[in-house]
Amino acid sequence: MPIIINLDVMMAKRKIGLMELAEKINITPANLSILKNNRAKAIRFSTLEEICKALDCQPADILQYIPE
Q1: I need a surface site. Which of 15, 23, 25, 37 has the fewest CB within 10 A?
Q2: For the stretch 18-50, what's the b/e string if a residue is b when 16 or more beta carbons lie within 10 angstroms of its beta carbon?
């Protein structure tokens, strides 16, 4: 897939764990893990917005396009 989710990188930069972030953005740890491990097929804008708020970042800090 040409869209890469760098959530794990931003979480490491902000020194926040999966459980803490999941609680902050009101998402299950299992669903957040799917995003973090780049296995998601889609992401809601509302979820992306909450992640950006919690991590104080921009969507481009999390999403990356790499042509195949």
Answers
A1: 15
A2: beebbeebebeeeebbbbbeeebeebeeebbeb
Query: Residue 8 contacts by C-beta under 8 Å, 6 or more apart in sequence?
Result: 36, 37
Question: Would the pLDDT of 68 be above 90?
Answer: no
The structure tokens 């950006």 sit at 52
- Provide the whole-model pTM: 0.89
Largest CA distance in the chain: 35
Chain centre to alpha carbon of residue 48: 7
Distance CA 52, CA 43 (A): 13
**Tens digit of pLDDT for each residue in 1-45?**
689 999 999 999 999 999 999 999 999 999 999 999 999 999 999
